[in-house]
Amino acid sequence: MNAHNLESLVKELNAGESIAEVEPGDVRSAAAFFAELRSHPNHDQIVSTSTSEKGYSFMINGLAKRCSPGANVLAVAIRGIVLEAMAEDYSRDSALHSRIDENELVESVARLPLVAADLRDPDEIRRRVFRLDASS
Fold first, then answer.
1. Among 35, 57, 33, 30, which Cα is nearest to 46's?
2. Contact at 8 Å (CB) between 117 and 16?
3. What is the spatial distance between Cα 92 and Cα 10, in angstroms, rounded to a whole number?
4. Is residue 111 within 8 Å of residue 26, measured between CB atoms?
5. How far, in Å, CA of 90 to CA of 76, rounded?
6. Bridge partners for 115 per DSSP
7. In 3-state terms, what secondary structure has residue 47?
8. Do 26 and 76 meet the contact criterion of CB atoms below 8 Å apart?
9. What are 21-55's pLDDT values in tens digits?
10. Which one, of 106, 53, 109, lies nearest residue 78 by Cα?
């Protein structure tokens, strides 16, 4: 992906365009890729915390190699980050296991209608992914 494509994507997302749905296997691959990066002995040199609060700068080509051909790698990356957050909730809250299994969790994150503004409200994403009512 070149800088022009990235700039174009950012403009589209900021204008309210949807974050593309992706294949569940690609989202799972993204989460695994991020975990690999964090476990690398030179993690601080590979993942720069200066680019975002959680430090999700990564080598796009490395992720692309793990995705299916033609995958929208940036959408996969965004949804992979969402999956990581939801998986953390899932592992901490056993009550969620009765609502959704792990495969449904991945499928839900891969297909969930999302726009960039949704990412500012992780609690709302959690409610939608786990099919919780507004009071949960």
1. 57
2. yes
3. 33
4. no
5. 20
6. 18
7. coil
8. yes
9. 999 999 999 999 988 887 876 655 554 443 444 44
10. 109
Closest to 24 in 3D by CA, of 124, 102, 135: 102
Q: How far apart are CA 126 and CA 84, in angstroms?
A: 12
Identity of the residue numbered 30: A
Burial class from Cβ neighbours inside 10 Å (0-12, 13-18, 19+) for residue 98 reads exposed
What is d(CA 74, CA 78) in angstroms, rounded to the nearest whole number? 6
- CA–CA dist 119, 131 (Å, integer): 17
The backbone torsions φ and ψ at residue 40, rounded to the nearest 5 degrees and listed phi first, read: -65, 140
Distance, CA of 16 to CA of 118 (rounded, Å): 10
- Which 8-state DSSP code applies to residue 112? S
How many beta carbons lie within 10 A of that of residue 105, not counting itself? 23
Q: Is 44 exposed, middle or buried (0-12, 13-18, 19+ CB in 10 A)?
A: exposed
68-85 pLDDT, tens digit each = 999 999 899 999 999 999
At 49, which amino acid appears? T
Number of Cβ within 10 Å of residue 71's Cβ equals: 20
Q: How far is the C-alpha of 15 from the C-alpha of 44, rounded, in Å?
A: 33
